[in-house]
Automatic annotation (TrEMBL), chain A:
Pfam families membership: BPD_transp_2
Subcellular location as annotated: Cell membrane
Ranges that cross the membrane: 12-31, 38-55, 61-83, 90-113, 150-167, 195-212, 232-256, 268-290
UniProt superkingdom: Bacteria
Annotated membrane topology: Multi-pass membrane protein
UniProt keywords, alphabetically: Cell membrane, Membrane, Sugar transport, Transmembrane, Transmembrane helix, Transport
InterPro entries: ABC_transp_permease
Protein name (database record): Simple sugar transport system permease protein
Automatic annotation (TrEMBL), chain B:
SMART domains in UniProt: AAA
Protein name in the entry: Simple sugar transport system ATP-binding protein
Organism from which the protein derives: Paenibacillus hunanensis
One protein family per Pfam: ABC_tran
Domain ABC transporter: 5-240, 256-499
InterPro entries in UniProt: AAA+_ATPase, ABC_carbohydrate_import_ATPase, ABC_transporter-like_ATP-bd, P-loop_NTPase
SUPFAM superfamilies to which the protein is assigned, alphabetical: P-loop containing nucleoside triphosphate hydrolases
CDD domains from the UniProt entry: ABC_Carb_Monos_I (cd03216), ABC_Carb_Monos_II (cd03215)
From TrEMBL, chain C:
Designated name of the protein: Simple sugar transport system permease protein
Keywords tagged on the record: Cell membrane, Membrane, Sugar transport, Transmembrane, Transmembrane helix, Transport
Localization, UniProt: Cell membrane
Membrane topology: Multi-pass membrane protein
Matches recorded under InterPro entries: ABC_transp_permease
Taxonomic lineage from the root: Bacteria, Bacillati, Bacillota, Bacilli, Bacillales
Transmembrane domains' residue ranges: 12-32, 52-75, 82-101, 107-127, 139-158, 190-210, 240-260, 281-304, 324-342
């Protein structure tokens, strides 16, 4: 591997960006109802673990994905309950949720599989790779687009669906209304809380898929803290994409490419630590293009007289 | 005429506090019924009950003769009651059509049929004589159009009774005229209005009947033809107001002098401040009148150092402080009662004590630490002098009522011992007693030789206190009048961008 | 509202949260099939059961308290500094390098190593503050990302340039420090070192700073309402420098203390795998950023962790049960159980003069 750019780089970009994209879409729908979901990292981690657990218990990779989705949705209800009903600070709840996810997964890893650090079963089936008829025979494009786990395609489909939902349907319109001005939405009889719950649940489902792609799509194992900050990168992707599903696709593509690039660089006799640093540095650099003055807006909302 | 809506013996209590007591009130088809009263008289509480945002402690509400119990606004909407809030409830990033049809969107399957929404809205606007462009974003529209949108929204929802809560506060005199004409037209078509306001000439111009509220109790109810402004204001206040003397004073040297201030707006928009020059002398009160949003806030931010002007100079107490940090400007001679007490003037989560310390940090610093016992002593004097009702100095500021918090802020700023004071909306939302107290204190300071810059959207306040009056319009000083020359009509004209006639 | 009621209400929060945390732990224990009472008894014994265990707990609490105090200060100013781990790692690495290569008498080297650790941790933290103040880079996320960068950088340093090549094992670590630069132990044969004294002193100092100094007042007002602070002449930029620098310096001190007092070298992953930085953040959240409360919460969390080690030694329950308990109680501590009560009071007061 002495070439920096080739077809397989873009192929692996698609594979790697999938968890980020799925989680970032989850972040986007939460942001659209006014909840800044810092807990994406934890949700994805729970998804990754429960996908492996589901596969172990049910012996079927599809049921395992479903199991992961359900588990993370249940877990995300906790986020919804504490931040919506108990009125806790959303950021604090998100951070604590990350702690809880880390704690629960390591605990369950010990309690259920009786291992520390990582669980690996060489007989376990991962997600299949789909070769798309016709497209796979097109040169270059086929090599990039074809031969991925179904969740890769699901991620892009989810992005398009979410875009249509948010901007074309009545229900999506009301969801955006609930996020933009909850007081006004409430006064119109729009059930703001119910919508917020719905958004958190969808976000949970997407993060469940993201986790499943991590633990069953890219590898077939679970390691402690295997999300390694991808949830936070997804959060930045959400912000850069301005919570628009198509924008989120664009920013996730950028981060996926960086990730793939950093893996590729490991073939170039650079210390692993530096190549691993690359995605974080690039994410940080990307934030320079997104001026964040949310603290002022938050403060205005919290202190303004029209409360 | 048929009675559409009736309140019978409504009482509302919050703990031991009675906000409304034994209210009898009704609205007939096609009438404009004005509800007037001072701030805190209980108008808002009454309307919140009608609109399902609060439930009465006792009494009945009847719609078309049948008793109803509203638990949230959507139920009131279904019974044909609509409300246009004082702070508009619009979604700035949505189009006007989207804002109007929300809750009853035209659909094609699950999809939102935006074209049909726009058509309906255009048609609705034309039918009621309030045309708007349905595709414009609400956030880009002037306040007059936003209000029109709010009214069209409640009409779209099928309201027969429309509550307008202080609808003219943010409008230019021209827009006010248009609005009053529009609601008269709608009333002629059979819609009913409850007009909440404290501006009496609007009441006299538009209303058919008038109900006056004071301290939660109805003090008068009459047809507009049978009464006059004086009678209403007596019923509102309950006594003759003390006439404060504004004895002629000899102003001293300039304490504030600003020259040719310019502050650019966003890309492609007009400048926020355009060539503003003014000065304040010791011993005079200079009033700045204007519809809010015409550059007053920005001007105050430039003077107090919260914003940097693009051009021009600010001279305070003999020193050039253009673009200096806030602290330096304050030390150079500025005290400042800010326009929004919750946003700028206080911290809700902090104690009364901590709120009182702001700006006095140097005075109560003892080897880097806060000298709390001295601070307490001083603040107890403020509490006495200004009759601030607070549990203790350790109560969180959020538990103070608006008027008491405003008195605390005023006391804090009066105590800064600086020769120049900005008083921005010093009595917004406070009761009559607090208002008189703050006004008295302002005049007192002025007699003592301080210069005061008073910014207020209440013309009566400006006229009562100012020695000179400047009118701001679209970021410029549109005109200057002396206290003797100034009349409400002249100022209104300047506020609306008209030329001054001499 | 009178003071007693408010204090009680303030205490209700953490107490309910701790209860929920213990219940979550009990559920986890039951799922494994062990006795809840026995397990919690073992946990208590493991944390406080003997003088040895007690000092062990306090040793573990030391870095948690220090990072927690730093985070508390930043939180009070309204800055979500999530970078304690990275600041601690770099502080520890810098202290190790100073300890290894600085000439001079042992005590001087030790003090310098602590100071250098603080400076490096502080600067790393300030870097995030600078990016926020100057370029509007979201501090919460930048500090999170900087954790990964710091840990990877430190990992590189001890895997290559600073790697200990004397030992037989292929561990990524620096050589051992000379014994005369170690932080002195407080009791012979026990792990507790002088860093704990520093942590307690820091808690008192930070308490006085936040609650009684003028600068602390300005930091609190900035965190409460940045508009009010700006109006009153508080400079956000300057306060950010103070808060982020101090915050990072305390995390750096925590790292330096671990290196000089416990590890006696910088060992890759030793500071991150024990999650001191995150525990510090949890302690802060538990105590709603009150410095003394943070110290107490730090000891509580350390006790949970050392107690869980006892649990693992003596029962079938794995020590990770501690993470479940701490995370649950952190999650619920920010919930406003008193919310309904407060809201009713507020509504009444507000409507007294409805605007």
């Amino acid at each position: 591997m002495d070439q920096l750019f080739d077809i397989s780089l873009f192929n692996s970009t698609l594979r790697i960006l999938t968890p980020i994209l799925l989680a970032a879409l989850g972040g986007a729908i939460c942001a659209r109802v006014g909840l800044f979901n810092v807990g994406l990292e934890g949700l994805v981690l729970v998804g990754a673990f429960s996908a492996i657990l589901g596969n172990h218990l049910l012996g079927n990779v599809w049921l395992a994905v479903l199991f992961a989705v359900i588990c993370v949705m249940l877990f995300s209800l906790l986020f919804a309950y504490v931040s919506i009903n108990l009125r806790a600070n959303v950021i604090v709840v998100g951070i604590s949720l990350n702690f809880l996810a880390a704690g629960l997964t390591t605990f369950c890893l010990r309690a259920i599989f009786d291992v520390k650090g990582a669980y690996y079963d060489k007989n376990m089936q991962g997600l299949p790779r789909w070769d798309i008829p016709l497209i796979k025979d097109i040169p270059v494009l086929g090599g990039i687009v074809s031969g991925h786990s179904p969740l890769v395609y699901a991620a892009f489909a989810a992005a398009i669906l979410m875009w249509v939902y948010l901007f074309k349907t009545v229900s999506g319109f009301r969801l955006r209304a609930a996020g933009e001005n909850p007081v006004a939405a409430q006064s119109l009889g729009i059930p703001v809380r119910r919508i917020q719950y719905g958004a958190v649940l969808v976000s949970g489902a997407l993060c469940g898929l993201a986790g499943a792609q991590l633990s069953l799509g890219q590898v077939t194992m679970f390691t402690e803290g295997m999300t390694a900050g991808r949830g936070f990168i997804a959060l930045v992707a959400t912000m850069l994409g301005q919570s628009n599903p198509l924008g989120v696709v664009a920013s996730s593509l950028l981060f996926g490419l960086m990730d793939a690039f950093s893996i590729r660089l490991q073939g170039f006799a650079l210390p692993a630590q530096f190549t691993q640093m690359l995605p974080y540095i690039m994410t940080l650099a990307a934030m320079f293009f997104f001026k964040d003055r949310s603290y002022l807006k938050d403060a205005q909302r919290a202190n303004g007289s029209s409360r | 005429m048929t009675v559409l809506l009736e309140m019978q013996g409504i009482t509302k209590k919050y703990g031991d506090f009675t906000a409304n007591h034994d209210i009898h009130f009704d609205v007939r088809k096609g009438e404009i019924h004005a509800l007037v009263g001072e701030n805190g008289a209980g108008k808002t509480t009454m309307m919140r009950m009608l609109y399902g945002m609060e439930q009465p402690t006792a009494g009945r509400i009847l719609v078309n003769g049948k008793e109803v119990h509203f638990h949230d606004p959507s139920q009131a909407i279904r019974h044909g009651i609509g409300m246009v809030h004082q702070h508009f409830m619009l979604f700035p990033s949505f189009t006007l059509a989207e804002n109007i049809v929300i809750g009853g969107e035209p659909k094609k399957g699950a999809f939102f049929d935006r074209q049909s929404a726009a058509d309906k809205v255009r048609e609705l606007g034309e039918r009621y004589g309030m045309p708007i462009d349905p595709w414009k974003k609400a956030g880009d529209c002037p306040l007059g159009i936003q209000q029109r949108t709010e009214i069209l929204k409640v009409l779209y929802q099928g309201a027969d009774v429309i509550i307008l809560d202080e609808p003219t506060g943010v409008l230019t005199p021209g827009e006010v005229k248009e609005l009053l004409a529009a609601i008269k037209g709608l009333a002629a078509q059979g819609k009913s209005f409850i007009l909440i306001t404290h501006k009496l000439h609007e009441v006299m111009e538009a209303a058919d009947r008038i109900t006056v509220l004071r301290d939660g109790v109805i003090t008068g109810q009459m047809a507009a033809n049978d009464t006059d402004e004086e009678q209403i204001s007596r019923l509102m206040v309950g006594r003759e107001l003390v006439q404060m003397s504004r004895a002629a004073r000899e102003p001293g040297e300039k304490v504030l002098d600003i020259q040719a201030i310019k502050l650019a707006g966003g890309k492609g928009s007009k400048p926020l401040l355009d060539d503003v020059s003014l000065s304040v002398r010791r011993g005079e009160i200079v009033g700045i009148a204007g519809i809010s949003g015409n550059g007053q806030s920005e001007l105050l931010q430039v003077i107090s150092g919260l914003r940097q002007p693009d051009r021009g100079t600010v001279e305070l107490n003999g020193a050039d402080v253009t673009g200096a940090p806030v602290r330096q400007i304050r030390e150079q001679g500025l005290a400042h009662i800010p326009e929004d007490r919750y946003l700028w003037g206080a911290s809700r989560d902090a104690t009364v004590l901590d709120n009182g310390l702001m700006g006095h940090q140097q005075r109560f610093r003892k080897r880097g630490l806060i000298d709390r016992s001295s601070l307490r002593k001083v603040m107890n004097e403020w509490v006495q002098r200004f009759a601030i009702k607070t549990g203790s100095l350790d109560t969180q500021a959020q538990f103070l009522s608006g008027g008491n918090l405003q008195k605390l802020i005023a006391a804090r700023e009066f105590a800064q011992q600086q020769p120049f004071l900005i008083a921005a909306e010093p009595t917004r939302g406070v009761d009559v007693g607090a208002m008189e107290l703050i006004h008295g204190e302002l005049l007192e300071r002025c007699r003592g030789g301080d210069g005061i810059l008073l910014v207020s959207s209440e013309l009566t306040e400006i006229l009562k206190l100012s020695d000179r009056i400047l009118v701001m319009y679209e970021g410029r000083i549109a005109g200057e009048l002396t206290a003797e020359q100034a009349t409400e009509e002249q100022i209104s004209l300047l506020m609306a961008g008209g030329k001054r006639q001499s | 509202m009178n003071v007693i009621k408010r204090t009680l209400l303030g205490m209700l929060q953490p107490v309910v949260a701790v209860l929920i945390g213990l219940i979550a732990g009990a559920v986890a224990i039951l799922l494994i099939g062990d006795s809840v009472v026995d397990t919690y008894r073992e946990m208590w014994n493991g944390a406080f059961g003997s003088f040895y265990f007690l000092t062990n707990t306090l040793t573990r609490a030391t870095p948690i308290i220090l990072t927690g105090l730093g985070v508390a200060l930043a939180f009070r100013a309204g800055f979500f500094n999530m970078g304690a781990t990275g600041q601690m790692v770099l502080g520890g690495l810098a202290a190790a390098i100073t300890g290894l290569y600085m000439p001079g008498p042992g005590w001087l080297v030790m003090i310098m190593a602590l100071l250098v650790g603080m400076v490096v941790g502080g600067l790393w933290s300030l870097f995030a503050g600078y990016m926020d103040a100057r370029f509007g880079v979201n501090l919460l996320i930048s500090t999170l990302l900087l954790n990964y960068i710091a840990s990877l950088f430190a990992g590189y340093m001890v895997s290559f340039p600073l790697k200990d090549r004397t030992g037989s094992a292929a561990m990524s670590q620096t050589p051992m420090l000379e014994a005369d630069v170690w932080l002195p132990k407080l009791f012979s044969g026990m792990s507790l070192h002088a860093g704990f004294i520093l942590a307690v002193l820091a808690a008192v100092a930070i308490y006085i700073f936040i609650h009684h100094s003028v600068a602390g007042y300005e930091i609190r007002m900035l965190g409460n309402n940045p508009f009010f602070a700006a109006y009153g002449g508080v400079k956000r930029g300057r306060m950010m420098v103070v808060a982020m620098l101090t915050s990072g310096a305390l995390a750096g001190l925590a790292g330096a203390g671990e290196v000089l007092g416990t590890q006696h070298r910088y060992l890759d992953g030793a500071l991150t795998s024990a999650d001191y930085g995150w525990s510090g953040i949890m302690a802060t959240l538990l105590a709603s950023s009150h410095p003394i409360g943070t110290a107490v919460a730090g000891i509580l969390l350390a006790a949970l962790q050392t107690g869980a080690m006892g649990v693992e030694r003596n029962t079938n329950v794995p020590l990770e049960v501690a993470s479940v308990i701490q995370a649950t109680l952190t999650l619920f501590v920010s919930a406003r159980f008193g919310y309904l009560f407060l809201k009713r009071r507020k509504e009444r007061k507000n409507n007294g003069s409805a605007v």
